[in-house]
Design brief:
By secondary structure, this protein is of the alpha/beta class. Helix content is 52%, strand content 12%. The longest helix has 16 residues. The radius of gyration is 21 Å and the shape is globular.
C-alpha cells in the first residue's frame, strides 16, 4: 500500500489489512513493504488502533521474522516520532544497553560515563525504567531508585546537565513519549519485539558540531545485520554494535566479542575483542579476578552502586577493572586513545584520583536542584 492509498483508507482498515497478511501462520504469512511497516508502527505509536491490534502486530512481525525492508520501516517510524535536541558539544557518544536491563552479574555502565567525560569523550546513557521481559537494572532505574532523582525533570534539564558535565543520562520519557506509552502493552506481550532492537538506535541528542557516536548491542545472532543497515541510514558518524556481558556494552570480558563497526561512508568492519589476548599480566589477571568475583554476586541496585562508587572514589573493588575495560574499549574504538592498554591505564588513573566520583556527585546534586 503506497502513501497515497494509505491516506484514503482508515487507520483501522489499514491495520486490518496488515494483520491479515502477517498473522496467518509460518507458511502463509506475507511480508510488508517498507512503507507499510512504517505506517503500521506509526498507527500504534499514534494511538490510532486498539491495544489488541497493536499487540498482534508487534507479536506477529517478530514471529514471522521481520524482513530488512520491514525493519527499516519500523526504525523510520520510531525515528520520525523521536523528540530530537541539539547539544552544544563537539562530540557525543550515546551508550544504549538493553532497555529491559540486566539481572545477573553486576554491570557498571552507569559509572563508566563520568570517567569517559574525563578521558575526553562526552557520553550519555540512553535508557528507560525497566521493561519486560527482564525488568532488570537500567541507568534510569539507578537515577530514580538509588539517587532519588524525581521523575518530573524535563528533557531540557537533562540536556543542560550533559552540556555542563559532559556526561549524563536520558530516558525514553524525555526522548520518545509515544514509545513510553506502550510500556503496559509491552509488559502484557511479555517477549521482546522489534521495539527492543531499534529503540536503542534512535538519536534523541545530536552534537551541534558533529561527531555523533553510538555504542549499542544485539542479543541474538543475526540482528546485527538489520542494525548495521539502520546504522548506515542513521545520522551517526560512527556506530559500534556488539554482544557483551548479559547483552550490555561491556565487550570481551566474559568471552570474546564480535564487534561490528561502521564509520559513515565506509563498509562495515567486523573485529573480535578478547581482553585475554589483548592484555598481559598483571592487568589481565586483575580483570579476570574482578569478573570471577562478580559472577558470584547477584545484581542488586544497592550493592551495584556501592561497588561503583567504591571504584570511582579510590580505584578499589572488583568494579574498577571492569569500568576501566569498558572505558578503554570506547576510548580506543572512538579514537580518543591509540590502544586498549593505554585506554585502560588512563581510566585507572582517573579512578585512582577520585575525580570521576566528584564529578558524578556534582552532577547528581545539580540534577536535584534543577528539579
Amino acid at each position: 500500500m503506497d502513501s497515497e492509498s494509505q491516506n484514503s483508507v482508515s487507520a483501522g482498515d489499514r491495520m486490518k489489512s496488515y494483520l491479515e497478511r502477517i498473522a496467518t501462520g509460518p507458511r502463509m504469512s506475507k511480508d510488508l513493504s517498507r512503507e507499510e511497516a512504517e505506517d503500521g508502527l506509526s498507527l500504534i505509536l499514534g494511538g490510532e488502533v486498539s491495544s489488541v491490534r497493536a499487540a498482534v502486530f508487534l507479536i506477529a512481525t517478530r514471529m514471522k521474522l521481520e524482513t530488512l525492508e520491514e525493519n527499516i520501516g519500523f526504525w523510520r517510524a520510531l525515528d520520525r516520532t523521536t523528540v530530537k535536541q541539539s547539544v552544544n558539544l563537539d562530540t557525543l557518544l550515546q551508550v544504549a544497553d538493553p532497555f529491559d536491563g540486566f539481572t545477573r552479574t553486576p554491570y557498571f555502565g552507569f559509572f563508566v560515563l563520568p570517567v569517559l567525560s574525563l578521558m575526553g569523550l562526552p557520553a550519555y546513557g540512553f535508557s528507560s525504567l525497566p521493561l519486560a521481559p527482564k525488568f532488570g537494572i537500567t541507568f534510569e532505574a539507578i537515577l530514580q531508585d538509588v539517587y532519588k532523582l524525581p521523575a518530573s525533570d524535563s528533557a531540557r534539564q537533562r540536556v543542560a546537565l550533559i552540556e555542563e558535565f559532559r556526561f549524563g543520562y536520558l530516558s525514553t520519557r524525555h526522548a520518545h513519549p509515544s514509545l513510553e506509552q506502550l510500556r503496559t502493552l509491552r509488559t502484557e506481550i511479555v517477549k521482546r519485539t522489534m521495539l527492543s532492537t531499534f529503540e536503542k538506535m534512535l538519536m534523541p541528542l545530536q552534537a551541534a558540531a558533529g561527531g555523533n557516536y553510538l555504542a549499542t548491542t544485539y542479543f541474538h545472532r543475526g540482528y546485527e545485520v538489520p542494525m548495521m543497515e539502520i546504522a548506515r541510514m542513521s545520522p551517526y558518524d560512527q556506530t559500534l554494535v556488539g554482544n557483551g556481558m548479559e547483552g550490555t556494552t561491556l565487550f570481551g570480558v566474559h568471552k570474546p566479542a564480535r564487534l561490528f563497526i561502521l564509520k559513515k561512508g565506509n563498509p562495515v568492519r567486523e573485529t573480535n575483542l578478547d581482553f585475554k589476548a589483548t592484555f598481559s599480566s598483571p592487568s589481565m589477571d586483575e580483570i579476570a579476578a574482578a569478573h570471577d568475583a562478580l559472577r558470584k554476586q547477584t545484581a542488586t541496585l544497592g550493592e551495584l552502586c556501592n561497588l561503583g562508587e567504591e571504584a570511582l572514589k579510590q580505584n578499589q573493588g572488583p568494579a574498577a577493572p571492569l569500568i576501566a575495560c569498558q572505558c578503554a574499549t570506547f576510548a580506543h574504538l572512538f579514537g580518543i586513545v591509540p590502544s586498549l592498554p593505554e585506554g585502560y591505564d588512563a581510566a585507572k588513573n582517573i579512578l585512582h584520583r577520585g575525580t570521576a566520583y566528584t564529578l558524578l556527585m556534582a552532577y547528581l546534586e545539580k540534577a536535584r536542584v534543577l528539579t
